[in-house]
Design brief:
Elements: E1 3-7, H1 13-25, E2 28-31, H2 37-41, E3 45-53, E4 57-58, H3 60-64, H4 66-70, E5 78-84, H5 96-107, E6 111-113, E7 116-117, E8 129-130, E9 133-134, E10 137-139, H6 148-162
Parallel strand pairs: 1-2, 1-3, 3-5, 5-6, 5-10
Antiparallel strand pairs: 3-4, 7-9, 8-9
Helix pairs in contact: 1-6
The structure holds flavin mononucleotide.
């Protein structure tokens, strides 16, 4: 059972989060700038993360290299998504990047795992919210950094259980 975490990050926040998630899942960690199409395919659980920029856009490196993901064969692939955003300043596009990645991988036949509750957040709209829950892990280091550690730990725990990952000591 192997796990790959692929992230993009402009100013380092999502990179630091990705490192923590990869450590907790004992996963291979790759920046999207270094990822090849095979990296999306050659794992049992694929974890993708991006901050949201512009107004509801993917981070630039993701935008520039989205073809690498679009070219991947993801039929039946189990995919977990995470993202960072700022719900106070960007209340109408909070963590939209998670929703953008979601739609791309779902169109390619992936199975989304790691949904989370929208409870505890305060935003107006988010592409990451579907049927009353987030399609991944939403983090707000700008306004709710004190909640991040617990949110990551709970998500890792959730994935370890749902994916039956052979991890005993959680390090998140
Ligand atoms: C110009 C700019 C635009 C942003 N747009 C959004 C947005 O639309 N939605 C959102 O949730 N966060 C938005 N953010 C907040 C970032 O996603 C957030 O600060 C994130 O943690 C940055 O991650 P990084 O350090 O990995 O680049 C924006 C930030 C900046 C500076």
């Amino acid at each position: 059972m192997n796990v790959t975490v692929i992230f993009g990050s402009e100013s380092g926040t999502t990179k630091a989060i990705a490192k923590r998630i990869a450590a907790g899942l004992q996963a291979k960690l790759l920046d999207i700038t270094a990822a090849k199409t095979a990296d999306f395919e050659q794992c049992d659980l694929l974890v993708l993360g991006s901050p949201t920029y512009g107004i509801g856009d993917l981070q630039t490196d993701w935008e520039d290299r989205i073809g690498t993901l679009r070219n991947a064969t993801l039929t039946g692939k189990r995919v977990a998504l995470f993202g960072t955003g700022d719900q106070a300043t960007y209340a109408d596009s909070f963590v939209d990047a998670i929703g953008i990645l979601h739609d791309i991988v779902v169109e390619k036949g992936a199975v989304i795992v790691g949904h989370t509750s929208i409870e505890g957040y305060d935003y107006v709209a988010s592409l990451a919210e579907r049927d009353g829950r987030f399609v991944g892990l939403a983090l707000d280091e700008d306004g709710q950094s004190s909640k991040t550690e617990k949110r990551i730990a709970a998500w890792i725990d959730q994935l370890v259980k749902s994916e039956s990952l052979p991890i005993t000591a959680l390090s998140a």
